[in-house]
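Reopening this one. Same input as before:
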Amino acid sequence: MTMIANKVTFEADASIDTPSDATSSSSFDPASLLPSPTTGKSTPQPNRSATKAALHALLTETLRPSPCNIFGSGPLLVSDIPPSAKPSSNDSSSNSSSNRGVIMGIDEAGRGPALGPMTYGAAYWHPTQSTNPIPPDFNDSKQLTAEKRQGLFTQIQSHPDIGFVLRVIHASEISRNMMRKSPYNLNAMSHDCAMEMIWAVLHAGITIDTCYVDTVGMPDAYRQKLDRVFEGHNITFVVEKKADAKYAPCSAASVVAKESRDAIVSNWKWTEMLNGYTPQNGHEFGSGYPSDPKCVSWMKSECNVDTPFGFPDFVRFSWGPTRKLLGDGPTADDVGNKNSNTNDRGKHPIVKWEADEEDETNTDNGGGRQSSMQSFVVTKRVEGNGQKTAVMQPQRKKARLAIFHEMGVSKVAAFAE
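Same output, byte for byte:
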């Protein structure tokens, strides 16, 4: 990965259909993967070379904009807009087939795993203005062979008439949302991601005629929700179970979502390696599903290796198996064991913080008891006007805890408006 000004250029990689000439034309602006801080809108890539470079960054380099690991949403990639998908200015008739707009499909992948992101994909094209044939063999990506699905993904990336959107919901974002005081559940996240992608296409100036959505929750309620949100845009929403096996745009979206998640998981770069963390079993975690013995074995071997957080940010902390391994439930040995007694409570991991150790050994403060106000100040007698007066002054500043240095956390001196 090479930084060029505020843009990034990536070497070509066999797993992603990157341009053969790794020049400035294949660079992209990383800021385009996050909504604009001023308008809140997403920026489409300027051309297909930039689209492929951005996709390579997300899937092969597992690029993650830093805010999404802490507080913000994950990356949203909007491909360049196919010329055939843009509204025609030559035909003024609103009933013309050329002005009907594109057909669009939306689907997800990675909803159930305890490891890695969930990905949302969208694909669209104009039903009559496409200059090249749309691949006829789209089908539910889960039913396709890996080779067939990968081939279709390559065709989508290179097809001049197919546009696509990819939204990556990393495990850190899922954990943060679901562990709120008022949980933001996975269904709500799924709905919001789908709407985010629809808005991204509309903001790019594309007219959507029909949008096929593989449902999350009750189809009728979901369709009514979409109708309310996009009222006035004249979009026909078709929300059904197994829509990815019925409608070509939804099937294409399924391919984008599934192939993208598989690539991210297999190429995952550990952010914690900067702080000395190395997974004991590398990428030997299988599918990432809690029912996969490889996943269970990997999670057991990695539990509390990354101290003090228990697991790397590749793991969904809000998932039951993760909570159990960290002690909030049955013991670690019971995870993956169908015969285990779920009423057996495990033991929470003991994490020793330097501050706790200091309190325990500080006999002046009572050793382990709750600190009083007097523990933060000292009383000194100051002489003035011939009299001595007791004055309270702050305690001498303590050294910063080592964890802040290890994590590279610094003080905030000012807040940007």
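So the earlier flakiness isn't reproducible anymore. For the record, Confidence is low (pLDDT under 50) at residues 1-16, 18-26, 340-347.
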